[in-house]
């Protein structure tokens, strides 16, 4: 079939060809083999309904993939996300740190999950101010039972405070012990930074380099970036960036009990132990070694989850991996569609009509939605060249300079997390994608004036998850911003500002 244009289905898939189900283990290389949904027992109709639902409700989904029997049978990417951009995995990173901990134990760098923090981090002995704190184990860190007070009820305030400190590991170890280690589940991201520091110390290399050599290299994952603390130690709780097709490989590795072709990347004993319901969280949900366990499904479904809609779902009885990337979506809304799509246990008859409709919807998902309407008038030229300076804030936004020479040509230069970025701003209801941003990944921005004379900035960090709506009021006696963020990190947050003196 000459000229077959692929979105997420192969030409064979579009023709309705069946691909036999294979019990023989397959592992992808740089790319995945592909097949039609029906050939692998996945129904297209619920996938069509899911895409229609996402578009109708304008859900901030970035990417969805389904791998079944080792075939990529469905991939949808949504405007303006590009699947070639490595995406922040948020707390899915915790599950990657868990895998790397298992590899370190396999290699003898860590003795066992029962080894204590005190024995592994002697350089921080002065912060281990009690025998109980010294006795916190690797298992306690992995299962969120360290007993450290991470102030989860305040939105993980301890994590935010840790990031403002000069030594994040020292800060984490100085947290108050409120429970006996191993006794109670309490979600705590600093636990995972301690694991990263332990891996770095024991392997004598960064967690990222350890991952590249022992996990990413055998899986042929080539584009990975990872944030780090002031000492250069990677953030074990979040901030790992991977492309969606590489993200799916991590779930597939666990579907194959840690084996990748002829290579045992991480021991099957570790993969099995990791996804046991070791600690109860709430009815129907338990926690393993940084994996969430759905105990209401038989056998249990296990998942890696991160804020904003980042998710790897492994469904063993369906021989399937599902991945999600998003900018503030509740992926539970989409689960019913996907479970219906996976209901068959054998291949289905070809459905060329459904596959044609699926192709049309996948193409539409990559296109821009209808433009947003803004009020045309505003003090554009009066603001041009002026700079706002901000007080300390959770967004870590330091400054904003306006370049409003003409209504048709808007741009902002922002100081963010100690770096400067110039961002073009779409002024006709459509975003413009910048050339760079944090981790070398772009922003998408659009803006305009509301009827009250406030500038409304829609700033989407895309693969870096956060999507901000910022109302900028420069008419008040003292200028200020009101910031909302789609993942819930900020809601009606008022940020005071001042104009920089000329």
UniProtKB/TrEMBL annotation:
Protein name: 6-aminohexanoate-dimer hydrolase
Domain Beta-lactamase-related residue range list: 56-325
Organism listed in the record: Acidisarcina polymorpha
Gene3D superfamilies reported for this sequence: DD-peptidase/beta-lactamase superfamily
InterPro entries: Beta-lactam-related, Beta-lactam/transpept-like, Diverse_Enzym_Activities
Matches recorded under SUPFAM superfamilies: beta-lactamase/transpeptidase-like
GO molecular function: hydrolase activity
UniProt keyword annotation of Hydrolase present: yes
Lineage: Bacteria, Pseudomonadati, Acidobacteriota, Terriglobia, Terriglobales
Hydrolase keyword on record: yes
Pfam families according to UniProt: Beta-lactamase
Signal sequence extent: 1-23
PANTHER family per record: BETA-LACTAMASE-RELATED (PTHR43283), BETA-LACTAMASE-RELATED DOMAIN-CONTAINING PROTEIN (PTHR43283:SF7)
Protein keywords: Hydrolase, Signal
């Amino acid at each position: 079939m000459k000229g077959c244009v692929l979105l997420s289905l192969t030409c064979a898939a579009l023709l309705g060809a069946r691909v036999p189900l294979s019990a023989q283990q397959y592992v992808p290389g740089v790319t995945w083999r592909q097949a039609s949904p029906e050939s692998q027992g996945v129904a297209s109709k619920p996938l069509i309904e899911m895409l229609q639902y996402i578009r109708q409700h304008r859900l901030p989904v970035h990417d969805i993939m389904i791998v079944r029997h080792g075939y990529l049978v469905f991939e949808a990417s949504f405007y303006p996300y590009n699947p070639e951009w490595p995406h922040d995995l948020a707390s899915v990173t915790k599950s990657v740190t868990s895998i790397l901990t298992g590899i370190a134990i396999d290699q003898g760098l860590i003795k066992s999950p029962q080894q204590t923090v005190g024995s592994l981090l002697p350089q921080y002995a002065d912060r281990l101010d009690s025998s109980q704190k010294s006795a916190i184990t690797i298992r306690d860190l992995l299962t969120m039972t360290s007993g450290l007070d991470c102030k989860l009820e305040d939105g993980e305030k301890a994590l935010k405070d840790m990031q403002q400190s000069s030594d994040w590991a020292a800060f984490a170890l100085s947290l108050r012990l409120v429970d006996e280690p191993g006794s109670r589940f309490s979600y705590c991201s600093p636990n995972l930074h301690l694991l990263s520091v332990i891996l770095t110390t024991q392997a004598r290399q960064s967690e990222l380099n350890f991952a590249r050599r022992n996990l990413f290299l055998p899986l042929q994952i080539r584009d990975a970036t990872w944030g780090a603390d002031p000492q250069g130690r990677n953030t074990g709780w979040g901030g790992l960036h991977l492309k969606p097709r590489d993200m799916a490989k991590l779930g597939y590795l666990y579907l194959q009990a840690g084996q990748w072709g002829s290579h045992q990347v991480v021991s099957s004993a570790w993969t099995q132990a990791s996804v046991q319901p070791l600690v109860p969280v709430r009815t129907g949900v338990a926690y393993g070694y940084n994996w969430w366990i759905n105990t209401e499904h038989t056998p249990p479904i296990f998942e890696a989850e991160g804020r904003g809609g980042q998710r790897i779902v492994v469904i063993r009885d369906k021989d399937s991996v599902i991945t999600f990337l998003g900018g503030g979506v509740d992926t539970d809304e989409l689960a019913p569609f996907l479970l219906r799509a996976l209901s068959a246990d054998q291949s289905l008859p070809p459905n060329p009509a459904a596959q044609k409709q699926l192709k049309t919807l996948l193409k539409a998902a990559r296109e821009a939605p209808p433009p947003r309407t803004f009020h045309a008038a505003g003090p554009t030229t009066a603001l041009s060249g002026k700079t706002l300076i901000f007080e300390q804030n959770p967004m870590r936004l330091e400054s904003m300079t306006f370049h409003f020479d003409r209504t048709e040509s808007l741009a902002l230069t922002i100081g963010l997390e100690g770096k400067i970025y110039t961002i073009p701003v779409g002024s006709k209801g459509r975003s413009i994608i910048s050339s760079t941003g944090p981790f070398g990944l772009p922003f998408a921005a659009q803006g305009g004036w509301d009827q009250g004379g406030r500038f409304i900035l829609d700033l989407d960090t895309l693969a870096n998850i956060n999507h901000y709506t910022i109302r900028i009021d420069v008419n008040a006696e003292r200028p200020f911003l009101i910031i909302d963020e789609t993942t819930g990190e900020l809601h009606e947050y008022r940020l005071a500002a001042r104009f920089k003196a000329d």
